[in-house]
Write a structure and sequence with these properties.
14 helices, alpha/beta, nine-stranded parallel β-sheet, 2 domains, 447 residues
Length: 447
Amino acid sequence: MQRKTPAQLSVWRPLNLDRFLLGAPHYPEHVDESCWRRDAERMAAAGVNTVRMGEFAWHIFEPYEGKFEFGLFDRAIEVLGAAGIDTIMCTPTATPPRWLTINYPEVLRVDVNGRPASHGSRQHADTTSPVFRGHSRRITRAMADHYRNDPRVIGWQTDNELNTTVSESFSPATRLEFQKFLQHKYGAIDALNFAWGGHFWATAYDDFSQIELPRPLMPSYASPGHVQDYHRFLAMATAAFQHDQVEILRAANPDWFIFHNLGQLADIDFRGQFGQDLHFIGFDIYPMLYDEMRRTGGHAVTQALHLDICRAYSGNYIYIVPEQASGLGSQPGFSTMTPEPGEMRRMAMTSVARGADGIMFFRWRPAHFGAEIYWMGVIDHDDVPRRRYDEASRFFHEIADIKDKILGTVVRMDVGIAGADFDNQEAHKTYPIGLPSPLDCYQRGIA
């Protein structure tokens, strides 16, 4: 893969790849190794050129502290490479292993009621924690050093959907880092008291060490300035957590591209350091999760609107879709509709039409266990390729035929809507008075 130095992040910044990425997230750790070669052959026949893997496998890469094992993924990459398929590797920091949370319980997030997160889910570690950031750097460095000379590893995804499960934490580590953030920002406590209106309800402070995290209704409303600075801090901390990984990956191999796959848009400043650090941004698109009753006319139109909003954050043509819905999606608390025949391909075409230069259907195979056991993939649970495989194959071959005509092109914009910048969007959280935020208005089709 050839790659040139990207331009500065702007509305006209082009994606700097010479390939339209076509593929699927792939989890070799979820399937018996005897199936790998058959999977690779089916992928190649369908037109897959790239897979993404590793984002939830920290416990495999580092089974205990300081002991690294790469054999399973090395073999998977080799099998895929023999079929002509390259790999995007992911830093696995969304799911720290159990040994880490036992030995370092201070890395766990703490909710607004003071309850620490428990192991057994994901995003349970606090990305504001200096201790967790240290572990994140260690696993990232070990993986980068191991794969730096592997030509089949062409790029990296940082973490996985940062802040999608939860963005807030109320841990002691978060409180201390928040106080440091405020001291750096304001310099003197009098400047903070003025900015936050400390004479109202006697909310002035004598020292930065006195400042608490703004828990809602404890027992009444916190200062809006206090709340907004907390969310600014969360965005800064998220960008700093990712920046650690980006620095390590770039130092190991400057030819790798680096991106992140965004889910929800909570406490992330795309136009700030978070976006500037990346070669491009990825957006995970699941149209069937969108409310059919929205005034936008259902999931088809809502998908296009969401993609336009995402493109506004990332520039007119600098994103890919690392996860594009392929079928029914389900977790224990919800289930989406199943796409009708042809709908999977149409949704993918909509993503291309709205500017994406890469589409990866989630996922190659569904898992036989876990909280997403009924989140369907391209191949069914019984290992039989059916309609979704046929639609994916048709889409991949259609895009491959025209890739030179669409790669790096822009979306024509006849109408623009003035959206909220990051700070104004975050300000809504401080004083919503029962009204939707500017971004909510667009998503509900009431702009």
